[in-house]
Specification:
This is Sugar ABC transporter permease. By secondary structure, this protein is mainly alpha-helical. 73% of the residues lie in helices and 0% in strands. The longest helix has 56 residues, at 2-57. The relative contact order is 0.11.
């Protein structure tokens, strides 16, 4: 009889316990939202709202001084006949398709050298990483001096070995190669990532290769580079996204003009001009979404291609 009474008491108390548990969960959820509210409000106000409005503005003639009017795909059609827009796309893609592979090749090569067991290894690694810490504007000023065709150090050194120095940034045929050369200055950050990838490769593979009589070149080709492809893939993605948004370096070099002859007029520079110099915010918004689509397509192509050349440890 007493046992039955205990069961009945427990059954009566169960709904109350469940209700208390439910209230507790609601209370904790409310506290969680309260503490996360600054971030939620921030992302809604400063990210989500501008993103949505930029889509709307890309279909209007909106400017900072005027709400504008709805023009549909008018901005996009106008861009297709804009010669400067086409030049900016060409310059940006030219820079991306040469600079990114070159930075990867140089970065991997230097990482292989810095991964060797030599005296003062830490010093060498530090020396190659320090330039990447220099602000972009300061880097630009340094390179403007180095590449000066009249009294720059680069042309001076070339003259010492009997090679006439080119005009570098003063000639449209040399301006983009000069910028690509300057981009190698900040390869130190990528080197750190490559070094981490190299140290993640199990030594068992190299020991097995030594037993089989493989030389250094074969080990590099069949072990090191294949197992480094995930790191190279990551830097390739980040490099493409970064170079497609290249702005500070060419803007500082040319004071925003893109000279000589628009050879350094990059996409984001032209977008900036339309938005803040010409106050064509709707036009600039359309450019921003075209850039977004270009980056998405390039990134998707790289992701699709990874099945053929990226090798992950433990996966066939």
């Amino acid at each position: 009889m007493a046992a039955n009474e205990n069961v009945a008491t427990t059954l009566k108390a169960y709904p109350q316990t469940k209700l208390k548990s439910s209230n507790y969960k609601r209370k904790m959820a409310l506290y969680g939202l309260l503490f996360a509210s600054p971030w939620i409000i921030g992302i809604l106000v400063f990210s989500a709202y501008p993103l949505i409005m930029s889509i709307y503005y890309s279909f209007t003639t909106y400017s900072i001084l005027d709400h504008g009017k709805w023009v549909g795909f008018g901005n996009y059609k106008e861009l297709m006949s804009d010669s400067t827009f086409k030049i900016s796309i060409y310059n940006t893609l030219y820079y991306t398709f040469i600079s990114v592979p070159l930075n990867i090749a140089v970065g991997v090569g230097l990482a292989l050298l810095l991964n060797t067991k030599i005296k003062g290894q830490g010093i060498y690694r530090t020396l190659f990483f320090i330039p990447s810490l220099v602000p972009a504007v300061a880097t630009t000023i340094i390179w403007l001096w180095l590449l000066n065709p009249q009294f720059g150090l680069v042309n001076y050194w070339l003259e010492q070995i009997g090679i006439p120095g080119p005009p570098w940034l003063g000639d449209e045929s040399w301006s983009k190669p000069s910028l690509i050369l300057m981009s190698l200055w900040g390869v130190g950050q990528a080197i750190v990532i490559y070094l981490a990838g190299l140290q993640d490769i199990p030594q068992d593979y190299y020991e097995a290769a030594d037993i089989d009589g493989a030389n250094t070149v074969r080990k590099l080709r069949h072990i090191t580079l294949p197992l480094m492809t995930p790191v190279i893939f990551f830097n390739l993605i980040m490099g493409v996204i970064g170079t497609m948004q290249n702005f500070v370096l060419p803007y500082t070099l040319t004071n925003g003009t893109g000279s000589p002859a628009d050879s350094l007029m990059f996409y984001v520079m032209y977008l900036y001009q339309n938005a803040f110099l010409y106050l064509k915010m709707g036009y600039a918004s359309a450019m921003a979404w075209i850039l977004f689509l270009i980056v998405v397509v390039l990134t998707a192509l790289i992701f699709i291609s990874q099945k053929r050349w990226v090798h992950y440890q433990g996966k066939e």
